[in-house]
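Batch queue: ligand-bound targets. Current item pairs a single chain with S-adenosylmethionine. No template structures supplied; prediction is de novo from sequence plus SMILES. Inputs echoed for audit trail.
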Amino acid sequence: MSLGMFAYDAFMFYFEKFGLDDMRKEILEDVNGTVLELGPGTGINLKYYDMEKIKSLAYIDIKFKDGLEIKARKKYPNITMIEGDAQKLPFEDNIFDSIVFTLVFCSVKNQLEGLNEVKRVLKENGTIYFIEHVEPHEGILKYVFNKTNHQWKYITGGCNLNRNTEFVLKDAGFDIKIIDRKFRDIFIGGIGIAVN
Ligand SMILES: C[S@@+](CC[C@H](N)C(=O)[O-])C[C@H]1O[C@@H](n2cnc3c(N)ncnc32)[C@H](O)[C@@H]1O
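Prediction returned. Tokens below.
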């Protein structure tokens, strides 16, 4: 395991155990129809999906983790897995009912470009389901996150601690509903639809 993955997993362990697990359950239970998940990582979200509701499942990731394909095919044998960038999705317009991304847009270089792509491939009546960590609103945490972002980004291989994803989602034309905020609002989970 690389230093980046190790640091990331150690950092995430506490958050998964004391909050994110519940958030994933809450946000992902209604994922349905033709589904695209961006940046699946180790495939952690598979266990939160109700496979009965899913008509097709596609993963796109800039680099798939070893072992993911075997794990994913056990749960969903017909899964489509494509290595690619969220900023340039290799799909036609308007084809997904549900698009899922959890803890991904902290790493996507140009968030607006990626979210515009999400909007493009989402059906008109489709829904996005997301969990992201974002910049703390104020105080010492905001200061510390900004001060250490450069080092954090280096050791994790691209993750930023100070992204304002909630606002960028709105800028990209999504009407979002934040369903849950945890850990002093650093983690947000919600759903959204494209409005313009
Ligand atoms: C921090 S991990 C999150 C994994 C998982 N979704 C979770 O909730 O734990 C970020 C994932 O997004 C992927 N990723 C980062 N930038 C990406 C991009 N521009 N396009 C597609 N995937 C990307 C990474 O390879 C990794 O699998």
